[in-house]
Amino acid sequence: MIDIKPMLQKDALINKTILITGGGSGLGKAMAKQFLNLGATLVIASRNLEKLQLAKEELEGQTGGKVYVFSCDVRDYNSVETMLDQAIETTGGIDVLVNNAAGNFISPTERLSANAFDTVVDIVLKGTSNCTLALGKRWIENKENNKNILNIVTTYSWTGSAYVVPSATAKAGVLAMTRSLAVEWAKYGIRSNAIAPGAFPTKGAIERLLPPQLQHLADMTKKIPLARVGKHEELGNLASYMVSDYASFLNGEVITLDGGEWLQGAGQFNFLREIPESLWDALEQSRKKK
Ligand code: COA
Question: What is the pTM of this model?
């Protein structure tokens, strides 16, 4: 059993105000907690203000940190602008943007309506571009520097994945945006990086994506070489490092945190993992006899 402790010094994020979209639940909230524990001030934004208020109370209670909440639909540029106006006026400025808000569902692609496809692309890709553009313009105009963007992508940003095609399409775009802006905006002192998390179960995530009849297909211990799912603290540790000044030379990188899951599906001979030691012994004996 691994005991995951905070990786960075206690005040590693002390002077950082961090905006997390979709930070009221799931992995966004898990990252928020770790950032707060390292001294950051947090802004969390999503559509549901009631959910955000509950998250704020929980996070402040757990960490003693300060959390500001603003309702915002990331699909709508004006809504993002209004949220940023309020957040910047309240906090004095934002140093880090974590584009975490997402929407996803499984479906054969031919069964999707055009609106269903748009809905996911609008949240994931347009939501990320809206927040990035609106905040990036302000950082550049005000000649602020030492800012950074952390995008949450997935390994199917580059492998693609059947049955989640709108999400795969949008996440591929987010990865391209990450790498493009890493070069273009470096001159303004803005870094862009991404994390591709694997299986980090959240309350309700699997239930939402997979109906009960399909959940037996999702035995993660078989899909992941390390034979376990990730712990939220592990994601929080990586995210904390990437947004901190310890990572000030890290730019344009996507770091996969999935226990080796996607590579297991990729290597041509990886199926040999199924072979027991006894069969390897027998094969070795027969080779030596020859
Ligand atoms: N399969 C196929 N189509 C679906 C669908 C599903 N499971 N869920 C929604 N749609 C379609 C709807 O039918 C609608 O299309 P239509 O108007 O042509 O019928 C379109 O998508 C929009 O649906 P709606 O429910 O109005 O969208 P919404 O904006 O309220 O929410 C989600 C859509 C995906 C964002 C919603 O499921 C959600 O909020 N999920 C929680 C967040 C999440 O998914 N996180 C995933 C993290 S991996």
Answer: 0.94
